[in-house]
Amino acid sequence: MRVVLLQLYRLGVLLAVVAMVRAHHVRLRIEGDAPVAVAEVTGWFTNAVELQIDAGARGGFQVRGAAGEELGYVIRTQPQGNKIVGYCGITDTLVGLDREGRVVGFRIRKSEDTRTHVADVLADRHFRKTWNGMSWEQVAGMDLKAAGVEGVSGATLTSMALAEAVVHRFRVAQGEARAQPWRVRWRDVGLVAVVGAGVWLTFTRRAGRVRWRRWFQWVVVGYVGFVNGDLLAQSLFAGWARAGVPWRLAPGLVLLAAAALVVPWVSGRPLYCQQLCPHGVAQEWLGRVVPARWRVKVPVAWDRGLRWLPGLLLLFVLVVVMLPLDFELAGLEPFDGYVLRAAGGATLAVAVVGLVAAAFVPKAYCRYGCPTGALLEFGRARGAGDRFGAREVAAAVLVAVVAVMWWKHAWIHSFVYGAAA
User: Fold this and answer.
1) Is residue 29 very low, low, confident or very high in pLDDT (cuts 50, 70, 90)?
2) How many helices (H) and strands (E) does the chain have?
3) Domain assignment present for 31
4) Span 182-195, mean pLDDT?
5) Is 38 contained in some domain?
6) Residue 419 pLDDT > 70
C-alpha cells in the first residue's frame, strides 16, 4: 500500500503542475490577447490606415485606406483554432484577402512552437503560397491531404497545425466547422513500430537480447533521431501543458510520450531513457569506444551536487512557462540537434558538450544535465523498498512554486503585458 500511495503521489504532482500551467495559459491567452494592428497588414495593403471590425459571420477585419475605401480583408486563426496544436504549441496566423476575396498570403503573429520550426515554415516559399489566389469557399472546402499539403521538412507538425488552423478558421466562418481529422502518416507508423520494439526489448529476457538491442540502437539514432525527429523534450512537454496534446495531428509522438511516462510508472523500467533516446544511445556508444583510462571518477560531493542540476533546470522551465519569459526552451537540451534543419546554436552546443563529457564520465548528460530524463525518472516505480525522500520533497516545492505563480496571476499579467499597455 505504501508503494501504491507513493506512485499516486508522484502522478498527482505531475497532473497538478500540468493543470495549473494549462489553466494559467488559457487565462493569459484570453486576458492578454493583443489586437491586430494596421502595421501587420501593410505588407499586403500598403495604403492601409484602418482596420474595421466585421461583426458578421466571418468575424475578421475590413482593411480601409485614407478615404475609407475598402482595400481587402484579414482574419485571424485565433481563438477559433485554439485546440489545434503543432509540435509544442498553438500558432496565431493572420490571413489576408484582396477586394475580390482571394487570398494574398499569411503571416504568423505569434507561435508557441520552437523558433527554429517557425523560421523553417516562413522560409519555405512553396508552403507560403499554399492558399494564394484561392477564394473563401475554396479554402473552406479544402482537403489538405487530397491537395498534397504535407508540411515543411524539419517543421512538419508546426506547418500542418498552421494549415489545419487556417482551413478550420475559414470553415468556422462558413458555418462548416468540422472536428480536426486524424492524420496518420508513415512517420507515425514508423514511430509506433519503434516504440513497440523498445517495449519488447525492455521486457524480454530472450537470448540474444543484447545483440538485438545494439542493432536497434542504429534505428533509434538513424530513424528516430535524424529522420523522424520526434523526440521528447521540455519544449514539447511545456507546450503540451500550455496548449493541449495534439492527439489527431501527431498520434505517433503522443504514443511515444505516453509510453515513456506510463511504462516506468507501472513497471519501474526506464523505457525512453534506456531504449529510445538517440542522445542516450550516442553517449553509450562513446562509452564503448573511448579507452577506459580516459574515464574520470567524479568525487562523491560533486556527484551529489551535480545530480540536483536536472531538477533545478525543471524549476527554471516552470518559471519560464508560467511568467512567461521570452526564452527558447529547446536550447536547454540537445534533442533538436538531431533535426539538423531545426537545430539552433544553443542546442548544438549542449549536444556537443554533453557528448564530450560522456567521453570522460559515462552518460554524463543523462546523469547530471537532462531535465526530461529527471521528469521521466521522477514517476518511475522503484519496487517494494521505495520510500518518500528528497526527490518527493523537491517535487512538492515545484508544485508550490507553480501554485504561487498561478495564484498571483494578476501580478504576472501586469508584468507581461503592462509595458505593452
Assistant:
1) low
2) 18, 5
3) no
4) 89
5) no
6) no
Angle at 118 between CA 113 and CA 120, to 5 degrees: 140
In tens, the pLDDT along 382-391 reads 888 888 888 8
Q: Cα(204)–Cα(65) distance, rounded to whole angstroms?
A: 70
Mean pLDDT of the region 380-406 = 87
pLDDT in the model for residue 409: 63
**Rounded distance, CA 362 to CA 215, Å?**
21
Backbone φ and ψ of 210, nearest 5°: -65, -45
Residue 33 lies in a domain: no
Sheet holding 50-53, edge to edge: 50-53, 61-64, 70-76, 91-97, 103-111
Buried/exposed code over 14-44 (b: 16+ C-beta within 10 A; e: otherwise): bebbbebbeebbeebbeeeeeebeeebbeeb
Q: How many angstroms separate the Cα of 112 from the Cα of each of 93, 238, 328?
A: 12, 10, 10
99: domain range? Answer: 47-174
Question: Does residue 86 contact residue 118 with C-beta atoms inside 8 Å?
Answer: no
Question: What's the confidence (pLDDT) of residue 421?
Answer: 41
- Helix boundaries (H) for 363-408: 364-368, 371-378, 390-407
Question: For residue 387, which amino acid is it?
Answer: R
